[in-house]
Specification:
The complex is a heterodimer of chains A (446) and B (179).
Chain A lengths: L4 E5 L3 H13 L3 E5 L2 H10 L4 E5 L7 H11 L4 E6 L4 H9 L4 E4 L4 H33 L8 H14 L5 E4 L6 H10 L8 E5 L5 H9 L16 H4 L4 E5 L6 H13 L1 E3 L6 E3 L3 E6 L3 H6 L5 H7 L2 E4 L10 H16 L5 E2 L1 H9 L5 H15 L4 E2 L6 H4 L11 H15 L4 H8 L3 H11 L4
Parallel strand pairs in A: 1-2, 1-3, 3-4, 4-5, 6-11, 6-12, 7-8, 8-11, 13-14
Antiparallel strand pairs in A: 9-10
Chain B lengths: L4 E6 L7 H12 L3 E6 L7 E2 L4 E3 H9 L8 E6 L3 E2 L8 E3 L5 E5 L14 H19 L18 H6 L6 H9 L4
Parallel strand pairs in B: 1-2, 1-5, 4-6, 5-8
Antiparallel strand pairs in B: 3-4, 7-8
Classes of the chains: A alpha/beta (446), B alpha/beta (179).
């Protein structure tokens, strides 16, 4: 069991000394501070489970200290201690989020109960946070569909690697279901009762990614009003899924390598080391070996993460899975939309199987969702499918307007970059504002 | 070599059950125990407003009367003890330190309006003495319901626990070579 930490803030030496001994005997790690400034300095080096805070101190008063303590660590339970009972200050302290308020001298039994309850509440709040992560993970998880030999091989590999604690790199084109594979690994691993926390490195700017992964202390940057745990810390006990690892900047690659080797890191703006026991599963659609040879990806990090590799095949290489997947999505959207289940007409089946699916399973899912929205009959007909799919094989019909071609091309590029406008605009050679205008004009949803 | 325990009978307090206390401590800790009287200057420890004695200051005074630096010393008193911030304490010790102090003031059934019960008083005094000495031997509170190191903030809790260490605490006591 982790030793619980308590900070006693009181200007009276005898109070600090006696409480320190009292809580040490109770198994706490105890620190004391004789005034507000020292208390804040200790909090910054924290964290503490409980802060016992005297309300009347020379210099900075208890309410101000309480406000600062809450800003630094909103998770610490604050118990206000005072020799002077005052309803007004008690109400103010409680409004500011103090767990409770007691007047000195206090009955030993009351103090024990108060501290026990404060710890219980703190544990429940932390458990709640973990459960929320777990629930969001369960909501997002879905089975991996496909009985083709290639997918069976993927499923076999997932079973093999899930039992280990090694780092895994999942490769595959955009839309092939790399995150689904990561979630499946986590769900079959011994870490399954802890959260899987997903971060997409490709969709977050470097500065934000750093804070997202490592968390930050209060005041680490403009707008950092509170201490915030990063995804690495939240993944403690579970799995960190880092999507698009090929997009991680060289500086972040160094930080990641260090965390992987030591399982320790510091939050942004902090100097206290935090440890996290997590398993890393990452994914990329890029060629990491080529990036290593070009110097764009650190070789040491590459070898550190590439313990197991899983290649998710593009949909065009497993056409036998297309109809099984299509039926799965029909059921999924019928349920979600409260509509009756529809079959897929033989002609539509033929179209689906013939098409090359450059956007892979994601594109197929979108096509079926669209067909379920616009189609009215008992079966999905070719006409319910997007025009470029209906026309077959990704080949372009000759007589089409320039606008139709542009719309379709924008849709494809957006799909390629998972709806990331900045990267799509860069590839298309236009600025983001222009792309936004075109999206609006063509009614394209990201 | 077991660490001996010296029981200091403070300021003339020498209950007739002192021998039972000495045996109880010796049984629980498996150490040699010896009792002798000690006179302390209690003036600085007395808080007139509370009509109680500051346990930390009394303990500090007691430590100045140690006969053997290798021994743990336990002060036994009938004075009502407190530490600032708390209304009272049954006893006080220094974790992994040289000594402890225990008061019988709130261990008497009469304090709670009940008829005198010497058997119960002796039982409570042994438990509190072993508990505070346990802290001096480096033990923190134990969650086991019947362990003498379980925290007890009111007298009914003292009655509920045993005067011995639980099996886990006994093991660590043995591993530390303290008995």
């Amino acid at each position: 069991m982790t030793t619980r930490k308590i900070l006693i803030v009181d200007d009276e030496l005898s109070v600090r000394g006696s409480l320190e001994e009292w809580f040490r005997e109770d198994g706490f790690h105890v620190e004391t501070a004789e005034d507000g400034n020292r208390a804040i300095a200790k909090m910054e080096a924290g964290p503490y489970d409980i802060v016992l805070l005297d309300l009347k101190m020379p210099g900075m008063d208890g309410i101000t200290v309480q406000r600062r303590v809450r800003e630094i660590d909103p998770g610490a339970a604050i118990i206000i201690l005072t020799a002077y009972a005052s309803v007004e200050t008690a109400v103010e302290a409680l409004k500011l989020g103090a767990f409770d308020y007691i007047t000195k001298p206090v009955d030993p039994d009351d103090l024990s109960n108060l501290v026990r309850n404060a710890l219980r509440q703190k544990e429940l709040a932390e458990e709640n946070l973990r459960l929320k992560e777990k629930v969001s993970e369960l909501i997002q998880s879905a089975p991996i569909i496909g009985g083709s030999p290639k997918m069976r091989r993927v499923l076999d590999t997932i079973r093999t690697v899930a039992e280990t604690d090694s780092t895994v790199v999942i490769r595959g084109e955009s839309g092939t279901g790399k995150e689904l594979v990561a979630r499946s690994i986590h769900a079959q691993s011994k870490r399954r009762f802890f959260p899987i926390v997903a971060v997409n490195a490709g969709s977050i700017p470097e500065t934000l990614l750093e804070s997202e992964l490592f968390g930050h202390e209060k005041g680490a940057f403009t707008g950092a009003q509170y201490r915030r745990k990063g995804k690495i810390e939240l993944a403690h006990g579970g799995t960190l899924f880092l999507d698009e690892i090929g997009d991680v900047t060289p500086k972040m690659q160094i930080d990641l390598l260090r965390v992987l080797e030591t399982k320790r890191f510091t939050r942004l703006g902090g100097n206290q080391e935090v440890s996290s026991d997590f398993r890393l599963v990452c994914a990329t659609h890029k060629n990491l070996e080529q990036m290593v040879s070009e110097g764009a990806f650190r070789e040491d990090l590459y070898y550190r993460i590439n313990v197991f590799g899983i290649e998710v095949p593009p949909l065009r290489e497993r056409p036998e899975d297309i109809l099984e997947l299509a039926r799965f999505f029909v059921e999924k959207y019928a349920r979600a939309m409260g509509k009756p289940l529809r079959s897929i007409a033989p002609a539509a089946e033929e179209v689906l199987v013939r098409y090359r699916w450059p956007g892979n399973v994601r594109e197929l899912e979108n096509a079926i969702e669209r067909a379920m929205v616009i189609g009215q009959g008992p079966a999905i007909e070719p006409g319910d499918l997007p025009l470029h799919i209906e026309s077959g094989g990704g080949t372009e019909p000759a007589a089409r307007s320039l606008a139709a071609v542009e719309k379709e091309h924008i849709e494809r590029v957006l799909q390629e970059f998972d709806g990331n406008v900045t990267r799509a605009a860069k590839t298309l050679g236009i600025d983001r504002a222009t792309l936004y205008n075109k999206l609006k004009r063509y009614g394209i949803r990201r | 070599m077991p660490v001996p325990v010296h029981v200091a009978l403070l300021n003339g307090y020498a209950p007739r059950w002192t021998d039972a206390l000495v045996s109880g401590i010796a049984d629980a800790l498996s150490v040699p125990v010896e009792a002798f009287p000690v006179e302390l200057d209690t003036v600085v420890a007395f808080a007139p407003g509370r009509r109680q004695y500051h346990a930390t200051l009394l303990l500090a005074a007691l430590l100045r009367h140690r006969r053997d630096p290798a021994a743990k010393i336990l002060g036994l008193t009938s004075m009502d003890l407190f530490i600032p911030v708390l209304t009272f304490v049954f006893g006080q010790s220094q974790l992994d330190g040289p000594g402890a102090i225990v008061s019988t003031h709130r261990l008497h059934s009469e304090y709670y309006g009940l008829p005198p019960d010497e058997g119960r008083l002796v039982d409570r005094a042994i438990k509190e003495a072993v508990h505070e000495l346990g802290h001096a031997f480096g033990f923190v509170h134990c969650p086991e319901a019947d362990c003498v190191m379980r925290a007890s903030t009111y007298v009914e809790e003292v009655d509920l626990k045993a005067s011995e260490f639980c099996s886990r605490c006994t093991r660590s006591l043995e591993e530390a070579g303290r008995r």
